[in-house]
Design a protein that fits this description.
Blueprint lengths: L2 H9 L3 E2 L5 E7 L3 E6 L2 E6 L2 E8 L3 E7 L2 E9 L2 E6 L5 E6 L10 E4 L4 E6 L5 E9 L7 E3 L2 H7 L4 H6 L5
Length: 167
Amino acid sequence: MNEKAKYYIQKLQLKKHPEGGYYREIYRANEMFYIDQPKKSLKRNVSTSIYFLLEGAQVSKFHKLKSDEQWHFYDGTAVKIFIIDEYGKLKEIILGKKIESGEVFQTVIKKSNWFAAEVLSKKSYALIGCTVSPGFDFSDFELGKRKNLTEDYPKHIEIIKKFTNPD
């Protein structure tokens, strides 16, 4: 494991995340509000944020949320984020510090879009922050199933295979 990644995992008290990588929640707004879902009304925090770290060959598997998620780059090397939008279009964003090369410090993944990510340098790591609004709740998180995603988006089959677990 990369020594700097090991340092951050220990110092920031990160634990394994179900989608891949490591995380720790650092903020959950006290303010709450109701979001309307079909046939029910759910209470959510206004906003939440986490530290999130991918190390080496780790990936963040395809998943989607019921809220927008903003990713902020902190340290390490660039991360490529793959987004499949509601129309099936694949978009790639490089989150990193080389803005002269087209990398960005932060980006937003819109709610209900499938997304996955990987560190570009497999000998390094990436430390990022994720802010979710309305606030994150695991009941709003859906991990992609390979069979369903390849049926829904057959033209992206190779990238889907790379970022999902075998069914």
